[in-house]
């Protein structure tokens, strides 16, 4: 007699859970949107959305909160991938927020537009009346992320209060909101960085080339290697030099650090990630080094 094995792999279980979350939100909310930066987590999330509704197209738009200080390779990838899928792209511009007087650009050596994204994001959610925003956050990233529910409630001011979140029993999610409120949804909550890379390998997903080892002019600041670009405000005491690096995460180029690495292939990156004991944000995000509560403070203001 032929024997059938119905055991699922870890990636199969994670994929099924994420697809179920995406479908549930698409069914319960009127205007969901997927936040897409061109980074590896949002690339995986876009792939899950594609699978969730195949062969129909993805039934909601994707939105990029654009600081204007992006890596060109990532923007090129973003535009190409969205065009391939035929998905509507909404670009919320931090530069527009500055020009309209909604936010004031920071000055000084460590100036960054990262925090300014909060206002731009909230304005875009209100303008387009999006009531659910899919984000690529994972609970393994840092402490504030670990407090998030899968369906994370935001009040009418876009603020997150960890004490005012709905219980999530098994796979039951409370999707009821009043007008003006919205939720952030994190289908990748139970994934780890290594899961993301394993899934990218299994699905054969293309990534922006900065995720792999390449030569780049960088300089050191606060123990991190930042790209030598005009808006990084490199000082005279921060000499630039060429190094073989790659990026573990993608964000505002003024505060996203590279790591020295010779990992030029998926297998080499996965081997490197499996051996590391430092989270990607702890190693590569200057804005999260301000204090242990930096991310939580931004989330309470309405950040991703």
TrEMBL record:
- Which is an annotated GO molecular function term of this record? nucleotidyltransferase activity
Q: What is its EC number?
A: 2.7.7.4
Q: Where is this region: Disordered?
A: 280-304
Annotated ranges, domain Phosphoadenosine phosphosulphate reductase: 32-257
The UniProt entry, under Gene3D superfamilies, shows: HUPs
- Key words, A-Z: ATP-binding, Nucleotide-binding, Nucleotidyltransferase, Transferase
Q: Name the InterPro entries on file.
A: PAPS_reduct_dom, Rossmann-like_a/b/a_fold, SO4_adenylTrfase_ssu, Sulfate_adenylyltrnsfr_sub2
Q: Does the record's keyword annotation contain Glycoprotein?
A: no
- Pfam families this protein is in? PAPS_reduct
Class of enzymatic activity (EC top level): transferase
- Does the record bear Nucleotide-binding in its keywords? yes
- Look up the coiled coil feature and give its residue ranges: none
Q: Which family does it belong to?
A: Belongs to the PAPS reductase family. CysD subfamily.
Q: Which PANTHER family match?
A: SULFATE ADENYLYLTRANSFERASE SUBUNIT 2
What is the name of this protein?
Sulfate adenylyltransferase subunit 2
């Amino acid at each position: 007699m032929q024997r059938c094995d119905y055991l699922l792999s870890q990636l199969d279980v994670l994929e099924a859970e994420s697809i179920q979350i995406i479908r549930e939100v698409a069914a319960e909310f009127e205007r969901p949107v997927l936040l897409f930066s061109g980074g590896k987590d949002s690339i995986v999330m876009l792939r899950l959305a594609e699978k969730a509704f195949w062969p129909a197209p993805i039934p909601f738009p994707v939105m990029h909160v654009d600081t204007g200080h992006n890596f060109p390779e990532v923007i090129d990838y973003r535009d190409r991938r969205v065009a391939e899928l035929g998905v509507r792209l909404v670009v919320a511009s931090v530069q527009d927020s500055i020009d309209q007087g909604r936010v004031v650009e920071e000055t000084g050596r460590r100036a960054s537009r990262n925090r300014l994204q909060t206002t731009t994001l909230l304005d875009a959610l209100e303008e387009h009346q999006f009531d659910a925003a899919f984000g690529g956050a994972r609970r393994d990233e840092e402490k504030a992320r670990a407090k998030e529910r899968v369906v994370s409630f935001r009040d009418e001011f876009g603020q997150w209060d960890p004490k005012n979140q709905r219980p999530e029993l098994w796979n039951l999610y409370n999707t009821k909101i009043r007008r003006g409120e919205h939720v952030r949804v994190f289908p990748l909550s139970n994934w780890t960085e290594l899961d993301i890379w394993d899934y990218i390998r299994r699905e054969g997903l293309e990534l922006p080339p900065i995720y792999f080892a390449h030569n780049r002019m960088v300089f050191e600041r606060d123990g991190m290697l930042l790209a030598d670009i005009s808006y990084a405000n490199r000082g005279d005491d921060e000499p630039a030099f060429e190094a073989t690096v790659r990026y573990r995460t993608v964000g505002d180029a003024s505060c996203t650090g590279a790591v020295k690495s010779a990992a030029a292939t998926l297998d080499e990156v996965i081997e490197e990630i499996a051996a590391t004991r430092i989270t990607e944000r702890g190693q590569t995000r200057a804005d999260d080094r301000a204090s242990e509560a930096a991310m939580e403070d931004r989330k309470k203001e309405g950040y991703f």
